[in-house]
């Protein structure tokens, strides 16, 4: 019988990659979607409406499911209120494995919401696997795209701190592989790209790859928050971003591991490869 997996965030950057690799390995997938999202089902893939805050959506999504890919939606910061009820539901269903998309350094940082998710998994005795990636390269083509594309600058309050970037395509493949070996249960893995960069170096790589100057602006905390609020980003999400970049500014984000390479059986994608793959988007030329 084909195993059935439930993927939260199935239409997002990481979720799409997890779905792709599960399907490639012959698994049946139920993908979470929002009511307003237009999705197309495929062989072994069915999308169903899911909401952490709406218990009426849970049972239908979990029908026949044995394993779950769990991620925190960006807009959720009150984890105990908004995610713990569903996590308790998973415990009651005796799910075989929950693979959670966490964040690098979470084990020593109670400021980020991922910490509460991890602690909840442990306290509820869920059969968890924590994957803690470094910063997403795709942050440059999502969160920071308008400032790069339209303003030719990178607005990050990280000072001279260094951080490691990993491509979401590699993260998704790693997450899927976590399900295929039961020895991964109750373990945590920090995965990174090959190299750490300062944000000035990232701006230099963008400049070289795009053929146009990209400046690294170093906003203070207040200016950074004001910048994102003015552009419509919610305060809770902005503060989470600020907490993560504060880790970098304090020199605690300069971590590189070979874990991703060992799991993937190849080296992770480089920053220059990512920039080349997304050049048209970063320049505003994508159709």
TrEMBL record:
Transmembrane stretches, start-end: none
Sequence ranges assigned to domain NmrA-like in this UniProt record: 2-274
Lineage, opening ranks: Bacteria, Pseudomonadati, Spirochaetota, Spirochaetia, Spirochaetales
Name of this chain's protein: NmrA-like domain-containing protein
Domain of life according to the entry: Bacteria
Organism expressing this protein natively: Salinispira pacifica
One of the Pfam families matching this protein, by short name: NmrA
InterPro entries named in the record: Ergot_Alk_Oxidoreductase, NAD(P)-bd_dom_sf, NmrA-like
